Amino acid sequence: MKSSVALTFDRLRLYLAEDDLTQAILDELRQTLTVDRVVLYSFNSERIGQVTFESLSDRKLSILISSGADECFNSEYSQLYENGRIRAIADIESEPIESCHRDFLRELQVKANLVVPILSDLKLWGLLVAHHCQSTFDWSANDILAMQATASNLSIVGDRLDS
After folding, report:
1. How distant, in Å, are the alpha carbons of 47, 91, 138, 139, 142 from that of 86?
2. pLDDT digits over 30-61, tens only?
3. Which residues constitute the domain of residue 112?
4. At what angle do helices 4-33 and 141-162 cross, to 10 degrees?
5. Between 20 and 30 A from 60 (CA), which of 9, 30, 34, 96?
6. Comparing C-alpha atoms, which of 71, 79, 154 is closest to residue 105?
7. How far apart are the C-alpha atoms of 151 and 128, rounded to whole Å?
8. CATH number at residue 31
9. 86 phi and psi, to 5 degrees?
10. pLDDT tens, 96-154?
11. Angle CA 44–50–56, to nearest 5
12. Which SUPFAM superfamilies match (predicted)?
């Protein structure tokens, strides 16, 4: 029988391995989509979210520590994403979005945005978000499929961390 210290160490090793895996997944997705930033925005049990992982083309684009929650993101949006909503914004300046959301995206230097839900047991676990920060961008069906496949893989990682 393992001691509690050994069990804790094994669990810590699993978490570290999962962190490395999550980072590798985001890095690969960013390179595949040729975007400036990919973030994993995860929710806790009270539905409060935060950026927990990011992959960047330039370190100056980091939002891991500095980004707060989008004040426009409320339970209505949470429900839409839990129901499978995918949001592709080619140009934040011309898209009909709430002004507070546009301001939030501007603060993050976002020009184009793609958001896909990460579901675990049909519950919203997080959001996978891709950003173009240099220019606007028309998201393709293949971009969306790549994001959905990645979100599916990340939901498995989330399931393992929650257990």
Report:
1. 19, 16, 14, 12, 13
2. 999 999 999 999 887 777 788 889 999 998 88
3. 4-162
4. 180
5. 96
6. 71
7. 6
8. 3.30.450.40
9. -120, 130
10. 998 888 998 999 999 999 999 999 888 888 999 999 999 999 999 999 999 999 998 88
11. 140
12. GAF domain-like
Q: CA-to-CA distance for 5 and 19, rounded, in angstroms?
A: 21
Amino acid at 56: L
- 145-151 long-range contacts, CB within 8 A, separation 24+: 146/29, 146/32, 146/33, 147/29, 147/33, 147/86, 147/114, 147/116, 148/86, 148/116, 150/25, 150/26, 150/29, 150/116, 151/116, 151/117, 151/118, 151/119
How many domains, in total, are found in the chain?
A: 1
> Which tokens hold the place of 42?
């995860």
**Site of tokens 């927990």:** 52
Tokens of 31: 């390179």
